[in-house]
Design a protein that fits this description.
Order of helices and strands: EEEEEEEEEEE
Number of helices: 0
Shape: globular
Length: 127
Amino acid sequence: QVQLVESGGGLVQAGGSLRLSCVASGRTFSSYTMGWFRQAPGKEREFVAAISWNGGSTDYAGSVKGRFTISRDNIKNTVYLQMNSLKPEDTAVYYCAASSLIASIATMWNGYQYIYWGQGTQVTVSS
């Protein structure tokens, strides 16, 4: 069992930055692929970014590539999402998730591949 707790959300002006953190409980964090997803009001949940168990591979949604960076610290059991050049369309609840699947990082965009989810943190970008 893994519990995930996100933090770092808030209100920021367009063009600003935020760093989200997701702390995982349990001793097997380093064996999981981790992902960030988001859901805006009235919209489907969408993939944002994923990182392999050792941080060696990452993948991003096209809408955030070049602006967001996912990273992890397996000593601290934490995954991060650095978000720069934020836009109003980035406004959403952001969720981190953990997957035990062994697969190419390029295939880890589907939320159904993840078995543990956090409660989410709100990110609001004002124009």
